[in-house]
Design brief:
By secondary structure, the chain is mainly alpha-helical. The chain has a single domain (8-70), classed as Erythroid Transcription Factor GATA-1, Chain A. It has two helices and two strands, in the order ββαα. It has helices at 30-42, 54-70; strands at residues 8-10, 17-19. Strands 1-2 form a two-stranded antiparallel ribbon. It is elongated, with a radius of gyration of 22 Å. The termini are far apart.
Length: 71
């Protein structure tokens, strides 16, 4: 029986290949993990879209559907 393929990715910091069995996965080392954490802390990474509260989203959808029904 063939062996299942090993999960491997590139380290997000230095782009080296990292196997899932590595203790620092998905990073290749603790150093790369800390560099990535530092980038988050300094605000280098940003979430591209706003996070909406589910209640606010539900109210917005109700308002949208209410506007369409009135027409």
């Amino acid at each position: 029986m063939p062996k299942p393929p090993k999960l491997k990715l590139n380290c997000p910091t230095c782009k080296k290949t990292v196997l899932a069995s590595n203790e620092d996965f998905p990073f290749c080392s603790d150093r790369c993990r800390r560099i990535d954490l530092g980038k988050w802390a300094m605000g280098v990474y940003k979430i591209s879209s706003p996070v909406l509260d589910p209640e606010v989203l539900e109210t917005s959808l109700e308002d949208l559907h209410g506007d369409n029904r009135e027409r």
